[in-house]
Amino acid sequence: AAMFDNAEGNVDVNAGSIDVDAMLSRGYTPSFKTKSLVTGPVGMSSGDSGGIFDDEEDEEEGPVFVDWTVNYDDENEFHIPNRIGFSTVDWGNSKAGFVGGKLKKKDRKAGKFNKTDLKRAYEKLQQNGVSFVETSESYNFAENLLSKYLEKIEHGDRPLVGSTFPNPWKQALRTRSLPRRGSKAVTAAAEASCDALGVSSMELYQIANPWYYIGGTSALADGMLDVISDDHSRYVGCIGMSLGRLVKLQKKLGAQGEFVATNQFEFSLTNRQALPMIEACKKLGI
After folding, report:
1. Model confidence pLDDT, tens digit, residues 39-80
2. I need a surface site. Which of 84, 154, 184, 244 has the fewest CB within 10 A?
3. CA proximity to 137, closest of 188, 178, 98, 96
4. Which residues of 259-284 are buried (b: 16+ CB within 10 A; e: fewer)?
5. How far is CA 67 from CA 9, 51, 199, 285, in A?
6. What is the pLDDT of residues 29-40, one digit of tens each?
C-alpha cells in the first residue's frame, strides 16, 4: 500500500519523452531500458537541479540520482524523509509467519521470522534513511516490539512514528468490548499508544475510517485537536477516509489553526483506482 505520491513536474528526468496520459491508461505496460551502473563514488549536484547530476557525461553514462530528501510543493508541513516509510502490520502476527521463539531450519525455509529478524530489518531501514514507521494498537504486539527498538537503536535522524486509532467496530470485536465513542476516546487511545511505544509524543496519529462513529465527525475532529493540544502527536491524519468526511475534518481543524496532514490508502501501479483521491487530497492540502 502506498501512502504518498510525487507531484507532476517535481522531478524532471527526461520529462519531454514521458507520455503521462499513456502511463495512466489501463493498458499501459512500461518498457525498461537499463544500463550497467558505474562503480565507485559519484557526485551529486549542489545547485538548483533537484539533486540530478549536472555533468553531461554522468547523465549519459552513469545512474541518475534523485534527492528524495528535499521538500516538495505538493507537501504540507508534515515531511517524511526520502518520501517512503514502512509498516509494522505483521509484527507479532503468527498468521503472517511470526514466531515468538527461536527459528528452526524448516521455519527459515518456510519464510517465517522472529524478533531478531524484525530488529535487524528495523535497524537496516533506519541506517538507510527510511525513518518513518507506521504502527497501530490493533497490530498485535507491534507497538510493544517497536518500543524496544526505538529505545535501543539510533541512526541518523530520529525515527518518525505514526500510530493509529483503529476502526471502533473492528476494535470492539477484537477486544470484545463496546465500540469507542466521543472525542475523549480518541485522546485516550493516543495516550495509550504513546505509553505502549515508550514515547512522550508521536509524529503522526491517524484515524481509521470508522464507517459510522458514535458522536459524529465533530467528535472525531475535537478528538484530533485534543491529541495535538495534549502533545500526544504533532500531526493528525486519516486512513481510508471518504472525501466528504475529509472535507469536513479539514474545515473543522482549519478553524482552530490545525490541519489533516495525511490520508492513507492503497495505490500502486496495478491499482490506480484511487488516483482521483490523490488529486483531491492535494487540493485540500493533505
Report:
1. 333 334 444 444 444 444 444 444 444 455 566 677 889 988
2. 244
3. 188
4. bbbbbbbebeeeeeebeebbeebbeb
5. 14, 5, 30, 23
6. 444 444 433 433
